[in-house]
């Protein structure tokens, strides 16, 4: 897999394990010793909160949306593509919005959902997905019944300089591609290293991350590769999920009827039509498991100490995903060369 080149290696471990981990990221495993250290837990939580406050101020300045920095920062940044399933995230946003409107007094763990990424110039469906996210954001962010419980932001022009701001501020990293479709994303590793927990399918590098940190330290949901294969064999029928799941039906009906696009009621007909008849990535099949898993995420987020302990376990397990480790293994196993301290003089000498 492509190695994860860290954008912002956490500085916190310096106080606990020294600074050699910067050259040898496998030394992060020493952090396992501090998983139950109350002071360290508080320090990790404090650094994350500082990053969130900084990013919230940036968002307010750039997007003119008042952000609750205590809300869970739920982040989905990557190329806009059907297989990455930004649409499933969007359906979850609509579901949360409907739940808040249905019962405003009920406990709701506040969320700021941040989606970002670029679409290929000729990719019509990806452009429509961006349009839908923005349309949903406009309705949700301007509904007084929702207030600061739920905010949605589409990050424009997602790029490295923006990643450097958003990744350290993320609580929840969305890695929700259909099992068997992701060759090897590396963004998920950067989030892991910078103290975000992952909600994801058993796909791409999520599999290796679960091996390193333990599946119990990620929020894994949905179909595995063999389930997808079996569903292909039987034939995927989106309609049956729509008929069986009232919240899914409500969300789709709203999108289809123009609830989020009152000036152009038919604007998202193509998106809905694709989900029913041409969805190779089976959004409806994983919707129920995804929503239930998100409920578990919210439940854990209420317990700051338990959440941060899981964060520390993830950071401690992130060492394998260093580019240094990858290149060392290539050198040893593929090129059969050993490290050398021989200094080669520059050409001018």
Automatic annotation (TrEMBL):
<dbReference type="GO" id="GO:0005980">
    <property type="term" value="P:glycogen catabolic process"/>
</dbReference>
<comment type="function">
    <text>Allosteric enzyme that catalyzes the rate-limiting step in glycogen catabolism, the phosphorolytic cleavage of glycogen to produce glucose-1-phosphate, and plays a central role in maintaining cellular and organismal glucose homeostasis.</text>
</comment>
<keyword id="KW-0021">Allosteric enzyme</keyword>
<protein>
    <recommendedName>
        <fullName>Alpha-1,4 glucan phosphorylase</fullName>
        <ecNumber>2.4.1.1</ecNumber>
    </recommendedName>
</protein>
<dbReference type="InterPro" id="IPR035090">
    <property type="entry name" value="Pyridoxal_P_attach_site"/>
</dbReference>
<keyword id="KW-0808">Transferase</keyword>
<keyword id="KW-0328">Glycosyltransferase</keyword>
<comment type="similarity">
    <text>Belongs to the glycogen phosphorylase family.</text>
</comment>
<dbReference type="InterPro" id="IPR000811">
    <property type="entry name" value="Glyco_trans_35"/>
</dbReference>
<dbReference type="GO" id="GO:0005737">
    <property type="term" value="C:cytoplasm"/>
</dbReference>
<keyword id="KW-0321">Glycogen metabolism</keyword>
<dbReference type="GO" id="GO:0030170">
    <property type="term" value="F:pyridoxal phosphate binding"/>
</dbReference>
<keyword id="KW-0597">Phosphoprotein</keyword>
<keyword id="KW-0119">Carbohydrate metabolism</keyword>
<dbReference type="GO" id="GO:0008184">
    <property type="term" value="F:glycogen phosphorylase activity"/>
</dbReference>
<comment type="subunit">
    <text>Homodimer; enzymatically active. Interacts with PPP1R3B; recruits the phosphatase PP1 which dephosphorylates and inactivates PYGL/glycogen phosphorylase.</text>
</comment>
<dbReference type="Pfam" id="PF00343">
    <property type="entry name" value="Phosphorylase"/>
</dbReference>
<keyword id="KW-0663">Pyridoxal phosphate</keyword>
